[in-house]
Amino acid sequence: MEILLEELYKTDIHIDKFHFRKLFLEDLSYQINGISQSGKTKLVKNYLLGLKKSSYLYIDCSDLRIDIDEFNNMLQNFCSNNKIETLVLDNYIQTIKIVNVPQLIICCEVNYKIEFLNTLRLYPLDYEEFLAYEHKYDSSSLNHFFQLGGFPYMHKINSDERVIYLQKTLKYTLSEIELDIIIFCTKMMAQKISPYSIYERLKHTRKISKDKLYKSFDALSEKGYIHQLQKTNHPKAIRKIYLCDISLKAALSIDKHFGRLFENMIYLELLKSGREPFYDDGIDFYLPFSEEVILGMPFADERVLFKKIESIEAFLFTYQIKKITAITMSKEGSISHPLSQVEMIPFDIWALGD
Predict the structure, then answer these.
(1) 333: left (phi over 0), alpha (psi -120 to 50) or beta
(2) If pLDDT is split at 50, 70 and 90, which confidence band does 136 have?
(3) Tens digit of pLDDT for each residue in 260-310?
């Protein structure tokens, strides 16, 4: 193991052109959580390149050459002898012992309870981050976002290879049961569904226990491959399911439903901006803190929006909603309402706003 550690210590780190993310690192110890291909490795390597070469050690814990027992016995002494100030354990697993260094950074999908580490969650690109990869910002950018989604690496994959590449990535990262659950969730995107309903559907096509499916579903939620949206003031009600990235829809399903895809995209922007929404009957997203309702209406006009507002007026009065925002593909406008400010805003303008 000492030979391997020496090799890793001497190896130069390289990354392609780095596009800055909204999340950045300082001289603190971190646990960076995020799904596969969300950009954790590139974020950390870019940080290391700003440090003195001899001061850091980068280790990918998925390296097949690592013998865990020998590695654990040698790592602390190696770091001490070489005065390692920053140690990065990428693809960290719990069997690797934590060592004492001035700055420790671990990257993993699962969140581990390590008190002295600052936890950061890295999601796939939001729309503003995505635009950094575009050669120019024009009307085609939003269409590119629909095609590519938020995984940074998709920009380097040829269009005819993207679906298979994404499928291979998921097969490598997830268990068979987890992959089956994800595939089913793509068909139920932005709809109310319970783990039990998934079990009832999957048990007809594969041998599976309820407990195993529930654990796999919880693992996917914890790692961030699927997200669940709670109903307003009804924590026990069935939750709506959203995917970690809109690109999974085309990669895992042939079903077409643009409205649900659009709703999933809005949800992800809310998630990445730290705003906690809820759903309700006829309400896509309710934001209690700002007393706002957000509706995904890609092709709506003033007449359609007015009818929609009429159907949800009881909710608007009950919760004293001050603002209604209808997110569209391109339509802008406003209508009058006695209680709420009502606006139609194109997605790209809304996503780049505050």
Answers:
(1) left
(2) confident
(3) 999 999 999 999 999 999 999 999 999 999 999 999 999 999 999 999 999
Reduced to 3 states (helix: H, G, I; strand: E, B; else coil), residue 241 is strand
Model pLDDT, residue 354: 63
Q: According to the model, what pLDDT value does residue 116 have?
A: 94
Are the beta carbons of 258 and 158 closer than 8 angstroms? Answer: no
Q: Name the residue with tokens 């095609």.
A: 147
Positive or negative CA dihedral for 127, 128, 129, 133? positive
Is there a contact between 168 and 151 (Cβ–Cβ < 8 Å)? no
The structure's pTM equals 0.93
pLDDT of residue 25: 96
Which structure tokens are listed for 124? 């796939």
Q: How far is the C-alpha of 267 from the C-alpha of 274, rounded, in Å? A: 11
CA–CA distance, 253 with 100 (Å, rounded to integer): 46
Q: What is the full DSSP assignment across 49-104?
A: TTS-GGGEEEEETT-TT--HHHHHHHHHHHHHHTT-SEEEEET--TTSPP---SEE
Instruction: For residues 291 and 322, give the distance between their C-alpha atoms in angstroms, rounded to a whole number.
Output: 6
Q: Quote the CA–CA distance of 210 and 11 in Å, as a whole number.
A: 47
Judging by DSSP bridges, how do beta strands 323-328 and 341-346 pair with one another?
Answer: parallel
Q: Name the region of 330 (left: φ>0; alpha: ψ -120 to 50; beta: rest).
A: alpha
Contact 132, 20 (CB under 8 A): yes
